[in-house]
Amino acid sequence: MDVSRLNRRCLRWCVLTFVLVAAFGWNASRVDAAGSSKYAHSDSDKRFLHHIDLYDRNNRKISPDSTEPYSVEKTCGRCHDFETISHGWHFNAFASEVERQRSNAAAQAASQAETDETATQSESPEHSEADAEHTEDEDVRSDGRPGEPWIWTDARTGTQLPLAYRDWEGRFSPSEIGITTHDMTQKFGARIPGGGAAANWDPKSAELADESSEPTRWPLTGSLEIDCMACHAKSGAYDFERRRETIEDENFAWAPTAAIRIGEVSGSVSRMKAGVDLEDEKVQAKLPKVQYDDRRFGIDGTVFFDLVRVPENNSCYQCHSQRTVSDSGIDARWNHDQDVHLRAGMKCVDCHRNGIDHQTVRGFEGEQHPAGVSATTLSCRGCHMGVSELAGDAHAHGQDDPLSLTQIAFRAGRLGSPFPKHEGLPPVHFEKLSCTACHSGPIPGEKAIGMMTSLAHGLGEKGHRSGLELPSIQGPVFAKADSNGLVTPHRAMWPAYWGKLVDGKVVPLSPEEVYTNTRRALRVRKDFIEELSEKGREEFDEKVAGALAAIEKTMEVEQAVYVSTGLVFARGDKEDSLIEVEVENRDAVEMVRWPMAHNVRPAGWALGATGCLECHSDDGLVFTSTVTPKGPAPVTAEPINMASIQGLDEATRLEWNQLFGGRKMFKVLTATSLILLLLAVAGSCLPTVRSRIE
Asked: From start to end residue, where is composition biased (Basic and acidic residues) (predicted)?
């Protein structure tokens, strides 16, 4: 036998086998669900028992004698698809501008390639234009419905500056102001579960910063990784307060270890200077150290993590609590009514669900959810009233059978929810109002009330609050939602910040730089309002004018301004005086609002439950309730009623109300007329009946 020929033949078969296996593996990875081809899963509703080995950021196994913090990514990522999870909604609240630019560039390139391919396959120019328009719409919706901004608050300078990395109207991009991702992480890191730019800092990101800026502190602090335990730890096993304190000390990489309380962290990065040599033994000695609790380690070296698959409500409350503020102060908890769904025993995650991608369903109407059409039934209408356009939704997702399981799931009554009959309510209400307009938020009064949130006021942290702390948030404000145009209750605030005028437009300045350069001029120790604004307009004008002059001199700004209460203040011609100036970008000065959905009230407490006149009267609160611009400046602004915010003409509204005011009398007159008409007919027919009987 020819051995060389046999070898060549075997080689050919090996190559062919390799190609087939590679092709099959490639296709399988594309077809399988995220993580199913690589990561094992139980496919059971039971809770999995976690006795696991811990690993540090250098992928070294941790023992009780280790001094390095454990890495969530290196530990949890051994069994879970960390890459897929990291794209979740909560983990990208701090998506950096560099990442956004790269993501947008990649999306545009992919969109262009898809458009070119479609144009080649189709001869219809209208088809290509439709695809391009669809792609553009998808890009616009990529950031979703506007949510609560990150409000940078500084009581010393009277600042309440709404920030967001997502492209939402009325919010400012931190990087454009000069606020670094590190600053944002230290300021708000306790209110995010980690991830995004806070966990993937890029040494090359310095290209966004000015050459004169200080060295980055990231090498010292480490990354604030996604902390799975923040949501999945059993209630009571995770210490949010300790996590917050650790992040404030700039010990980002040590936060998960401290929060789960498996060891004590000593040392603080905040006391160290940036730009030091990490290889230096003296620097290494100053870095925080962990002393692990050896009682938490088993004989085999594993650590027990008491966690749950479905996050408990207590984890959500850390970032999503709210409290109303009346004239007498913060409303006491004992007088505070829970959401009707929570009172019925539901959990937050019953509606706000997610898969392995952690793209949490937000639950608003018209939500374009990456997971598919199932999110439609998790909105108010979808759950209680079902999804009406079944055929269209099914066809769009390849479900041609109208009796498929997917279609049945679109019926009303998901999770046992009652079907609201809304007897006597004209259908036009569902075209103008969201469900939350009548059922959610504080019951409206003659004016909007103060509101405090976890993100803005640190609810959950121990402290002494009066309810007057910045930022000044109010609600409910009945305005048309940007996502669907339906009247929806909102929370609202007016920005207050120090800025500069550039070509007639106001641009915010870095809050930290402002404090450094205005400290001597303002001479405020703790509270801008208490030490300046409450002393009167004269004191305010003098100190603010001096601070603006200091900014113009030390920060080399041509014209500095202070924004508050919807007004823009600049230095006047007279010494220690201020004037109000107009700016072209009014959206940087006016009200910033975002929709609210909780707490949901029962049907008996819904607007309109007592009849049409509750809204359709001259004093109907959904139209006449007012909200007044509030800010640190001692300015008394004019109240704004809800009708004007909704774009309604007051004269037309009053004329329309007259129809409802006389409805009862009209019904009585109509009924009386019908009775008299019947009696008259009966009377005219009576002689004929008698004659026939006789």
From this structure: 124-133
